Amino acid sequence: MTNENEMKDPVLPLGRPTIGSAGNTGTWRSSKPVFIEEKCIKCYECWLNCPEGTIRVDADEEYPYVDYVYCKGCGICVHVCPKEALEMKPE
Amino acid sequence: MTNENEMKDPVLPLGRPTIGSAGNTGTWRSSKPVFIEEKCIKCYECWLNCPEGTIRVDADEEYPYVDYVYCKGCGICVHVCPKEALEMKPE
Amino acid sequence: MMTEIRILSRGGQGGVTSAKLLAKAGHIDNKFVQAIPKYGAERKGAPIYADVRIADEHVKIHAPVITSNTHSWIILEPSLVETIPFDELKPGTIVIINSQEIPPVLNEQKNLKIGKVDGATIARECGLIKSGTLMLSTTMLGAWIKATDNLVSLEALKKATELQFGVGSLTDSNIRSIEMAYEQFEFVN
Amino acid sequence: MMTEIRILSRGGQGGVTSAKLLAKAGHIDNKFVQAIPKYGAERKGAPIYADVRIADEHVKIHAPVITSNTHSWIILEPSLVETIPFDELKPGTIVIINSQEIPPVLNEQKNLKIGKVDGATIARECGLIKSGTLMLSTTMLGAWIKATDNLVSLEALKKATELQFGVGSLTDSNIRSIEMAYEQFEFVN
Amino acid sequence: MSIKIPQLLNRPDVLLRGNFACAGCGLSIAYRTTISALENPIVVIPACCASVIQSLHPNVTYNVPTLNIAFAAHASAASGISRGKKRRGEKVTTVVWTGDGGTYDIGVSTWSGAAERNEDILHCCYDNGFYSNTGAQRSGATPRGAVTTTTPTGKTEKRKSITRIMMAHDIPYIATASVGYPRDLYTKVKKAAQIEGYRFILIDAPCPTGWNSDPAITRELGRLAVQTGYFPLFEVENGKLTFSRRSERVRDPERRKPLEEYLSKQGRFKQMTSEAIKALSKDLQREWDLLARFE
Amino acid sequence: MSIKIPQLLNRPDVLLRGNFACAGCGLSIAYRTTISALENPIVVIPACCASVIQSLHPNVTYNVPTLNIAFAAHASAASGISRGKKRRGEKVTTVVWTGDGGTYDIGVSTWSGAAERNEDILHCCYDNGFYSNTGAQRSGATPRGAVTTTTPTGKTEKRKSITRIMMAHDIPYIATASVGYPRDLYTKVKKAAQIEGYRFILIDAPCPTGWNSDPAITRELGRLAVQTGYFPLFEVENGKLTFSRRSERVRDPERRKPLEEYLSKQGRFKQMTSEAIKALSKDLQREWDLLARFE
Amino acid sequence: MVQTSEKQKIELLTGNESVATAVKLAKPQVIAAYPITPQTTIVETLSKMVAEGELDCDYVNVESEHSAMGAAIGASLSGVRTFTATSAHGLLYMGELVWWAGLTRIPIVMPVVNRSLNPWNIWPDHQDSMSFRDAGWIQFYAKNNQEVLDLTLCAFKIAEHHKIWMPVMVCLDGFILSHTSAQVSIPSQKDVDEFLPPFEPLAILDPKDPFAHGSLTDSQGIWEQRMSLIDGFENSRVIIPKIFAEYAEKFGKLGKNMIEITGDINSADIAIMALGTLGEEAEQALEVLNEKGIKAVVVRLRVFRPFPRKELITALKKVSKVLVIDRAVSFGNAGQMAIEVQAELYTHKIEIEFHQIIRGLGGMDVTYMEIAAEVEKIM
Amino acid sequence: MVQTSEKQKIELLTGNESVATAVKLAKPQVIAAYPITPQTTIVETLSKMVAEGELDCDYVNVESEHSAMGAAIGASLSGVRTFTATSAHGLLYMGELVWWAGLTRIPIVMPVVNRSLNPWNIWPDHQDSMSFRDAGWIQFYAKNNQEVLDLTLCAFKIAEHHKIWMPVMVCLDGFILSHTSAQVSIPSQKDVDEFLPPFEPLAILDPKDPFAHGSLTDSQGIWEQRMSLIDGFENSRVIIPKIFAEYAEKFGKLGKNMIEITGDINSADIAIMALGTLGEEAEQALEVLNEKGIKAVVVRLRVFRPFPRKELITALKKVSKVLVIDRAVSFGNAGQMAIEVQAELYTHKIEIEFHQIIRGLGGMDVTYMEIAAEVEKIM
Ligand SMILES: Cc1ncc(C[n+]2csc(CCOP(=O)(O)OP(=O)(O)O)c2C)c(N)n1
Ligand SMILES: Cc1ncc(C[n+]2csc(CCOP(=O)(O)OP(=O)(O)O)c2C)c(N)n1
Ligand code: SF4
Ligand code: SF4
Ligand code: SF4
Ligand code: SF4
Ligand code: SF4
Ligand code: SF4
Ligand SMILES: [Mg+2]
Ligand SMILES: [Mg+2]
User: Fold this and answer.
1) Nearest residue, CB atoms, F212 vs list D45, D46, D131
2) Where are the alpha helices (DSSP H) in G252-276?
3) Contact (Cβ atoms closer than 8 angstroms) between residue H63 and residue E116
């Protein structure tokens, strides 16, 4: 192979940002946070403290919700909610 | 050679303390400190400040002298003597 | 003769300990054994597996078990049943699950020997909980011994448990859970 | 044809520069050259040597000069004359010393061509002193050119000196010292 | 400057969901909060849990350019990036993101050199007080008395004061922050981003796995550390130290929550005798006193 | 405790005459004074001029057991010796003997780790403010404005404050000393020898070759450094700093000799503009002020 | 059935526990080590032994591997038996001092738990230890946990033999051995004490008899030391098998030779060469091959440094083909073992069909079936 | 007589000045290096060039070699041409990152000014660079100062070729080249600009298109990257000679091949192999041998990585004897070059009389007369 164009390109150690790189981490959970809309005051404290980014908010002024595909069920959101608008439930 | 006693011993990287390891460093000198006994008060300041250890004192209460074999002629002893009991002379 | 067993669990549930205990039991029974935890970079909670080999001679193999060779599977975490490559298993392979119900995907496996035991309930009853997580390492082994017709002896497993946890209440609880699982295990096909 | 020259000096006196200057002069004269300082771990003041090769063809040798091959020796520091392995030198080897007197050991060497110049005085007269040390790098080369019958040209050496020290009084002093040494050098046998 | 959440909600995630971190990981919170506060960050990560949670090649869960590098090469690699990007005329924030092991132990020379050169780098250290990635071995950050897998009967030396060591390097900005107070962290990062030169932020980041604590109380542990005086929050700007509001409030030891409240929630402190706790308290108070000299 | 010369005269030399050091070398004076003050020293030397002046194998000019070791491994090798000798029940003083390069730059991690473990080591750094062994390149100790072969137009960063960095490590004893005052150095070494744990002595050691100064004035340069306030002498015992008499005397800048007197005697400062000198003065005064906080 | 003897007890140990057990029996006085996956459990187990007083020893909690080896060198020269362990980037980070220990003859024992190098990967291959094959260290590669223990114990005796006096690396495959439990027979402390007497230093830093170790050395001095190192390796070629034999006699486990031949080499058509667990995996492949009528043997280098020339040639002379499986690469040329085996065959003008493959990089599984298939391919 | 051309000027340069001159012509944007004898004057010369504005570049005054290579990796990935240089223990101390750069493909150019390893010795041998022959770096060995300059310039183009994209080490013998002045012909900036276009990154850390470089990678990923590195070396076997040829055509200096044969190989009885200056010294030995009626040639590997297999075999096929002179040792086996040459000869079943010696360790002088004598001995 003396033609440079036919030579293989280097495989560089580049990883590309991908949601769910570690798989559906929601399956790691043994219990899950459940949202109680009535109590929520949209303070987004849950969003701020969730380590996973699995408290989602689609736009300002909207209610947060949980991305269960990836939420690991740590319970932090429940713990930090000032209004008990989240609670842990077994899977 | 299967007899362990006949085997060579390891040559370890051990250097032994030896005066003049770098040769007769007195030859590095272009001028030399000369001692003037009359002026000396045996304060041993020259001894204390000589980097080489070439100001020698055989015993307490004796006059210092210079080991010309190794004295590099830096002139510090001359410089630090409070009594001008040392002076530099060209070789 | 060499028996290869794979244990599926989540990090933290005790799957790796389970493999060690089973190997230790085999050792006590004078078998040659290996316990091979497959370490990934995953953290607590992620699915992991561990392999056990029990043999009549010194085991020279070091690669993980080849799924088509497995004799039995022990599933500590029921949801992981989805990860079993059923196509590759040979007929008659034993699959034991910690569950009250047999999940549909298992029910479909007509060529395998499927069994269940409610390990979670047993462990809970025996007080095998640490920081909120059920410790299932021993329980499911009780079931496995029953399922395999004492491929290693119950005695050996109990002895291994004692060696692992020392004499005391923790060992007692684990031994109770072994016994209960041994009793309650049933094949469903 | 290849000429091999060794320069003896003390660290700080300019022996290494001397070798470079001589090589540069050779270069200007369209010769092939090498200047090889032999670096030791010694500090300022210790004896050092530097070699120069001047040849008509590209020099392929990288080892230091072999003393038995040397064409000439330039001694910046007279006391170092003691370190010359006279036994190994071939008859007719030139030895040039910076001294008013020929030291006895040199006087004994009947087969060599011995010459002297009072480089120290010349350098002092030309003001080539830096922090109390005489800078002898150029002076002795003037003598060498005379001794070797212009093996490289005086012009080339002056040019090299200018390239080394830049246009200015330092170069002027050096050139003066070269000229003086060239004038004053004499063989003693 | 205070964090306004709505401003942030619509920013792209910097740490994507579905990663390898343990549930309740403090490092993840610290990373999300810090990196979201920056414009055009380029992050250098040496060996540590942060090099694992990004998950397996060819996929990663960091959504910003990231250079993984050898354990002791973080600040040097960042120096190279920072210089190179300036040469290219690109405005970026070069971030060093290390654990305490990388900052307190193996990597001291590399950052100390970069600090001396005053490289334009924001050095963030998430501090969980040991080597969580390799299974909870002692680090220079481990407090006296804590059990780790290499100090099975409790560490006998005190925790290294990395902030005072940094201060002695005379860099323009130093701060401590905590995942217990993400707004405070965010605000400090924003401020640091405005400054040129070597900047350092130490972030207390609970590790439920290694500390043997309930994942749900990660934030609470962060707060307790501040409220008990275990982890003082402050900023040092050009050599002048200011305690942050929450720590200023507990400057008087009397006003602190009892240290035991913090310790008792973590497995690593379980075995501590009351004497050991006293020794730890003494270390902590001494640190407060020394810090106060720089006010 | 003050040095009595007659006591010492009959001690065997620790540095034998006929070595590779340049004439007038400050390091040699520092070494002789320091090591003579110790009973049963074992000296660890990383790459530096001190590893060269011992001369060529199989002869050496150090008359005490010496371990030569890689540049960045001094304090770790010393840790091993100190531990091993304790195990063997032999009472020795394990000494780390480094240049400023080994202490301020490449070897920071190794000593920082040893200091954190509070290893029983006496760490002495002879400071000539650059890498003399390799031909005068900049180090972290090079003062702002000084010319080195890697800062041909003068260093643009300030000198690292290694003593404050050490202090932040909370080790039991720290001192600065100078070959300008060998008695003071000797006394401090004697004191340090009585203390257990990690101890540090920084020794100002002029290098006539690299500084381009007259070898005869090595002691004078050492003294001028103190008298001009360039190099303050002090001790820090368990965190408390005390200026030594000679520096206490020049605490008031008015009482100091002009800095130029010191600078003008050295080639490395020759090119400095008066502005550059002012910048250096400012660095020095700032250091004094910061040190004073620890009194 | 598992064999037991009176003197020895058999326990289920991971490879790392086997190391720790051997170390405990060897009674070092200073251990300095830094954690790195998959070596970590060695460090942890030893820390625990020391903390609990089971092992009377200083454990130095250094801040890096560079310092681990620095401390080990210092400790050894202070006159005590010294131990450390590492893996992958840990080995690289201490690299400067690995060379220091090798070239200045410091008798340290160090397991290297083999792991792949960067980009980050924690799984086994031999790139780490192979890259130090020049560095003046004796190198062993263990095939199973029993050999890990046996070789570690022998390593102390070999390193400290006064005609060798060199550091020894005991290489074991990460995870495959380090974290896998298997039966290991453990000698009694009394027997080990007999086998391995207390540390007897050849040179010791001592104020009463000062020397400088490793001082500036001229060309001649370096030349002498390097030649002596070459001699030391020659000596070790004789002494290592003797010590192995002594160990085997005492404890009945370890093979006596620097290479292990499994199968009947006199009737074999092909030799399979592989290091560490791949070697034992290849033994299993023999059974598969046997069924297919292929007569193969495994020629495993238990010792890679010194390179066991004579034994290797004696063995390979008898076969007509060889397949060398490397688990590392000298990038820009080929597998390191393949290169060296070829060179040896060339020296002795042994013409056999030579095959080489690279397998198992970055922890890729290599099964006996795959090995058998590779052999089949070339038969 | 010295040849001059219009385009090039000839100057008297030390080897280190040759490096610095080449670097200046190559216009890197970041240099990060740490001083160590005998590399120091490279660092100093470049510092001066930067300080005086001759070279528009950031010079990072790092605090160690580990950091030098760390900074170089960071700078390269930031998207600029990057340079560093080191020697001996400097190379060892940056070892972890040398591997990092090699295995993750960072196109850095680094001269290694060859120097012996510990105990302290500053004189030349090849132990330092040889010990990194596995590490995924292309390696050149220069025979004289001209080649130092030529190879350094080519190194940038080769490292940055998109089908290679690897770091390159240019090895030059310490003192023998680094501090010795000799004539070097220097190409013009304009010509070099043509030969070496600006840095064109294959991957760049960029907030607009984020990726993670070197993240945790499973076995499969490592396998792919390692195989790609092997491919990269294969590519380089083709591309390096092309670039050499392009350079030779432009500047008329450098030989075109990865190996250089001096003498008439078709009539030669023996080939002498040696790296770097020993290679040129051997050329001089040819004259001595010729006088004695011995027909010898020098077969010098200008490129050691990739190991120039084909060229080597083509050459050695034609002789009946070879003498390999190594200036380094793989302790416990033999000289590294000797091992690899033997392996290659074995692969190609070329039976010639093989001789190997080790010379010049720790800076021992090796003269052409000594080389000639060694050849005579075996004729
Ligand atoms: C040179 C080197 N030594 C050791 C390791 C193994 N190692 C990886 S991460 C780590 C500990 C990191 O601790 P820290 O920085 O506190 O981060 P954490 O794990 O706590 O997140 C160690 C020891 C390594 N990768 N490289
Ligand atoms: C790893 C490594 N890098 C670089 C060197 C080269 N080197 C030897 S001594 C030295 C400088 C030492 O400086 P310092 O510690 O200040 O001592 P000094 O030379 O001033 O006495 C350097 C860079 C080395 N020996 N090892
Ligand atoms: S923390 Fe509670 S109240 Fe606040 S947004 Fe979340 S769910 Fe609503
Ligand atoms: S349980 Fe934890 S991971 Fe899930 S949404 Fe709440 S905070 Fe996030
Ligand atoms: S310093 Fe002067 S007065 Fe004092 S002892 Fe020396 S020569 Fe005598
Ligand atoms: S001149 Fe210098 S070396 Fe000589 S005796 Fe005086 S102080 Fe010592
Ligand atoms: S071990 Fe601790 S720091 Fe690491 S990912 Fe888990 S919780 Fe986070
Ligand atoms: S260079 Fe300086 S420090 Fe080194 S030996 Fe010479 S005078 Fe002393
Ligand atoms: Mg940590
Ligand atoms: Mg210095």
Assistant:
1) D131
2) none
3) yes
Which chain B residues in 27-56 lie under 8 Å from chain D, judged by CB atoms? 27-30
Domain containing residue B35: 18-90
Structural domains of chain F ordered from first start: 5-292 (3.40.50.970)
Does B38 reside within a domain?
Answer: yes
- Which of B1, B9, B18, B19 should we substitute to test contact with G (largest number of G Cβ atoms within 10 Å)? B9
Residue with tokens 């392995």: D85
- Tell me where in chain G the CATH 3.40.50.920 domain(s) lie: 260-378
CA distances in angstroms from H337 to D144, F266, G102, G360, H325, listed in the order given: 44, 50, 21, 26, 8
Measured distance between the N- and C-terminal CA atoms of chain G, rounded to whole angstroms = 35
Query: Residue D153, SS3?
Result: coil
E-only strand ranges, chain G: 9-14, 30-32, 58-60, 82-83, 109-114, 138-141, 168-173, 181-186, 212-213, 259-262, 270-273, 296-301, 303-305, 321-326, 353-358
Best to test chain G binding among F14, F16, F57, F62 (most G CBs inside 10 Å): F57
Q: Which residue has 């003769």 as its token pair?
A: C1
User: DSSP code of H272?
Assistant: E
DSSP class of residue F101 equals: I
Cβ neighbours for G51, distance < 8 A, ≥ 6 positions apart: E151, E152, E153, G59
pTM to 2 decimal places: 0.98
Contact check, Cβ <8 Å, H219/G130: no
Cα B21 to averaged position of ligand 5 atoms, centre (Å): 27
Q: What is the Cα–Cα distance from D29 to D43, expressed in whole angstroms?
A: 34
Q: How far apart are the first and last CA of chain D?
A: 26
User: Are the C-beta atoms of H301 and H325 separated by less than 8 Å?
Assistant: no
Q: Are C124 and C134 in contact (CB under 8 A)?
A: yes
Q: In H, what residues contact F, Cβ < 8 A?
A: 34-37, 40, 43-44, 47-48, 51-52, 59, 61, 63-64, 89, 92-93, 118-120
CA distance E220 to E239: 31
Direct distance between the N- and C-terminal alpha carbons of chain B, in angstroms, rounded to an integer: 58
Domains of chain C by start residue, with CATH: 2-187 (3.40.920.10)
**Fold of the domain built from segment(s) G9-251:** Rossmann fold (3.40.50)
Q: Cβ(F203)–Cβ(F32) under 8 Å? A: no
Q: Is C127 on the interface with A (CB under 8 A)?
A: no
Range(s) for CATH 3.40.50.970 in chain G? 9-251
Answer whether residue B13 is part of any domain.
Answer: no
pLDDT tens-digit profile, chain D (189 residues):
899 999 999 888 889 999 999 999 999 999 999 999 987 766 777 888 999 999 999 999 999 999 999 999 999 999 899 899 999 999 999 999 999 999 999 999 999 999 999 999 999 999 998 767 788 999 999 999 999 999 999 999 999 999 999 989 999 999 999 999 999 999 998
CATH architecture of H260-378: 3-Layer(aba) Sandwich (3.40)
- Looking at this protein, which amino acid is placed at residue H362? G
User: Hey, which of A34, A35, A38, A46 would you mutate to test ligand 3's pocket, going by the most ligand atoms within 8 Å of its Cβ?
Assistant: A46
A4 assigned to some structural domain:
no
Q: Residues with beta carbon < 5 A to ion ligand 10?
A: F 99-100, 128, 132
pLDDT in tens, C114-144: 999 999 999 999 999 876 778 899 999 999 9
Contacts of G102 in chain F (CB under 8 A): none
Residue A65 belongs to domain with CATH number? 3.30.70.20
Is the residue at B41 inside a domain?
Answer: yes
Contacts of D168 (CB under 8 A, 6+ apart): none
User: Which of E15, E20, E22 has the most ligand 7 atoms within 8 A of CB, as the residue to mutate?
Assistant: E22
